[in-house]
Amino acid sequence: MAAGKKYGFSDFQWVAVMVSAILGAGMMTLPRAVGEIAGRDGWISIILAGFVAWTAALIIWLLCRKFPTRTLPEMSMLILGRPLGILVSALYSLYALVVCSLALRILLSMLSTWVFIWVPLPVFLILILIAIGYVGRMGAITLARLMEIKTILAVAIVFMFMVPLREFVSLNLRPVGGEGLKILQAVPNASFSFLGFEVMLIFFPFLINKNKALKLNSIALGLVTAAYAAGVVFVYGVLGLEYTLNLIWPLMTYMRIGTLPFVQRVDNMLLFAWAGLIISVATVHYFSATYTLATLSKRKYHDIWVLVSLPLVYLLTNVPSNLAETFVFSEIVGMIGYPFLLGMAVLLLLVAKIRGLDEREGKKT
Amino acid sequence: MIRFLFTIFLCGLLFFAGGCWDILLIEDLAMVIAIGFDVDPENPDLMVVTMTSPTLSEEKKEPMATVTVKAESIDQALHNVQRQSEDILVLGQTNVLVFCEEFARSGRLSEVMSQLSQLRDINANAKVVVVKGATAQNVLQLSSPVEPRAAVYLVDLLERNHFTGMINQATVSEYWRKHYTLGIDPVVALIDITGHEDEKEGFRVAGAGLFNSAGKMTGTLTDEEVISYNIITGDAPRRRFITKVKISGHKRNVSGLIERSKVKIKTKIKDKPSIDVRMELIVDGLDADWDANVLDPKVTDKLAKLLAKDFQGNIQELFEKSQKVQADFAGLGRHVRVQHSEWFNGKDWAEEYKDADISVSVKVTVRRIGTMVKPES
Fold first, then answer.
1. Secondary structure (3-state) at B120
2. Domain range summary for chain A, segments of one domain joined by +
3. Which of A67, A96, B250, B263 could form a disulfide with A75 if both were Cys (CB 3.0 to 4.6 A apart)?
4. pLDDT of residue B197
5. How close A219 gets to chain B, by Cα (Å)?
């Protein structure tokens, strides 16, 4: 008799969910964002930002490891007490919904800029929200399976990235390290693009091989760092720094160069493929937010939370009135997101330590 | 009942699907495949813009529809052409942009390229070409016996000649990149019209146009010089050369293929930049009109040395020419920036390039000479 499969995330699904939660809209503008500060050494800033993100993920992992069967709302209520736990969880939900809205807003801006100029944004937004709501109601395992498939399909995107490389000029990236301290100054900006690893706070109990979590997180963050750094290296190498800094969507302009025998506009192909990645970011964060809210209501009514949160995301997506505001909004979320998440994780860890709470040792839980 | 309503709701949503919202049928599109830009002789503030698109209909007599308008900007030109077009203008299939020489020399080409970079649907891989001694409008209205659609003929001409190393690659995106990047300037392909004075019906590639950092075409390269340009920059898949070298007191025809080239650039800064360009060329399939035994290693070596001297002289002259017109076509400034970034940051490279000391040394390795032991026996 075959052994029954365990219910939860496989190793690959975990990596897929982590990658899907991080890799999205940031890549479209990252070459410009880091280049403005770190010049042609922007890619080094990204690698350093990857280490920063890994350290932050390590802190969250330390917390999750103490409470392997509890999600953020459950552990925060246990550690901080019910009122503070609810507050922390509600703030996290709000943060996740904002991240979801922001990802969607950037996607809509991109689509309306490059292809669907005349299609009203609400049309796209409503269609995408219906899809996100539908996936959200299917549960965490379905979400993980979907992200797994999407991650495999994303390999095609890697090949698309290679198309313009014929025009790559290594001189555009040299001298390496010439920007000096500016490389470090760009790290905070680059780090914002790595936000998303915090979904571990919600999904950790679903992971089957919890003892492998650190290794899997490292793989996921390594993949994202490699993708971001490669994206910046490719864009600078092909377009040159000076031209890149003059572009709102450098990656799209990069993709406009070069054709394939069977596809003349590779940029449009990438746009549609990348739309899938951004929707994944939004979906994972949306699920995290609604699952947190459902857990606060004793793990009931997740279906209802999924439905009632959709109008909120719709409204949040429409908060920035233009593209400039969207980028400002994005920076603010990044600036608040990191301190909030790290502060919360460190606070929970410290209080748990002081109170001697550790689920693994069966202490007071 | 709920299922029924849900189905109706979903069907209703189909009307909102992105692709159907702004549906564009191919029959309703005027796909501009070439755009020409000329100076307006009556008003220097205006440009004459010619757009040509296939008619895509069996009912139409002409295979191409060509519309010429006057405008101050590319956007205005598009508006004006649209007013004369029964179809919707789209630029995604634009394969070539033709500029008259006066337009390029005045710097307006650069302005237009900047305007084009803001049009999201423009084909970034479209070719950029400058026509000598004629207007772009003339070029797009020519009807060659080989291919009556001038724009199609021109694109094929440019593509094939780039492939065989007769011209450089010059695309819209390459122009944008070189124009913005410090230490390198754009180079575009040059054509002229052929045929009798009263019956001009074709065109040929005639070299390249050199642009300075301000976006003005300040000089040109002859078709022979373009071959040297391609050798330096590696800008063509296949590079073939034809030259004459003095062997035993006689000028002899020598031709061959550059199989591989390796360029090393070293720079020094004293009171001005000093740039040392070292090239190693692997030459194959060499044909020489010379009554000598090509299987003799001494003959091969002698030919290699003579060719190296010839290339060296041609390339040195090319650099000197580009210095006079302040057009750093080979991107030597990028090497100076990389090797002396602190010095480079405060300088106007165009001015520095003009006075830079550039020395060229070429080493040639001949891999194979023709198919005959004594070619001219």
1. coil
2. 11-361
3. A67
4. 65
5. 34
Placement of tokens 């910046």 in the chain:
A232
A175/chain B closest Cα distance in angstroms = 5
Cβ-Cβ contacts under 8 Å, B16 against chain A = 123, 126-127
Categorize the per-residue pLDDT at A1 as very low, low, confident or very high, splitting at 50, 70 and 90.
Answer: very low
Q: Is the pLDDT of residue B202 over 90?
A: no
- Enter the pTM of the model: 0.90
CA distance A123 to chain B (A): 6
Query: Measured between beta carbons, which residues in chain B are less than 8 angstroms from residue A241?
Result: 181
Chain A residues whose beta carbon lies within 8 Å of the beta carbon of residue B181: 172, 240-243
Per-residue pLDDT tens over the stretch B205-214: 999 999 999 9
Using alpha carbons, list the distances in angstroms from residue B317 to A143, A280, B221, B224, B323.
65, 58, 11, 12, 10
User: Any idea what the Cα angle at residue B265 is, between residues B189 and B129, rounded to 5°?
Assistant: 5
| ipTM confidence score | 0.88
Q: Is A239 an interface residue toward B (CB < 8 Å)? A: yes
* A152, HSE (Cβ side, Cα atoms, 13 Å): 7
> pLDDT tens digits, residue range A282-337?
999 999 999 999 998 876 778 889 999 999 999 999 999 999 999 999 999 989 99
A167 and B174 in contact by Cβ < 8 A? Answer: yes
Name the residue ranges covered by the structural domains of chain B: 25-221, 233-377
Q: Count, in order, helices (H) and strands (E) of chain B.
A: 13, 14
Instruction: Please say whether the beta carbons of A358 and A66 come within 8 A.
Output: yes
Buried b (16+ CB within 10 A) or exposed e, B10-33: eeeeeeeeeeeeeeeeeeebbbbb
> Tokens representing A174?
């040299």
Candidate CATH numbers 2.60.40.1120, 3.30.300.210, 3.40.50.1100, 3.20.20.150; the one for domain B233-377: 3.30.300.210
Residue among B122, B173, B264 with most chain A CBs within 10 A, to mutate = B173
> Rounded to an integer, what distance in angstroms lies between the CA atom of residue A282 and that of residue A220?
18
Q: How confident is the model at residue B321 (pLDDT cuts 50, 70, 90)?
A: very high
Domain A11-361 sits in which CATH superfamily? Answer: Hydantoin permease (1.10.4160.10)
What lies within 8 Å, CB to CB, of A93 at 6+ separation is: A288, A289, A290, A292, A293
List, as ranges, residues 155-194 from B with C-beta within 8 Å of A: 173-174, 176-177, 180-182
- Beta-carbon separation of A256 and B22 below 8 A: no
What does the pLDDT read at residue B151? 86
Residues 6+ apart with CB under 8 A from B144: B150, B153, B201, B202
Triad B306, B308, B312: Cα angle to 5°? 120
CA distance B152 to A334: 50
Nearest-angstrom CA–CA distance, B108 and B106 = 6
Does residue B375 register a pLDDT over 90? no
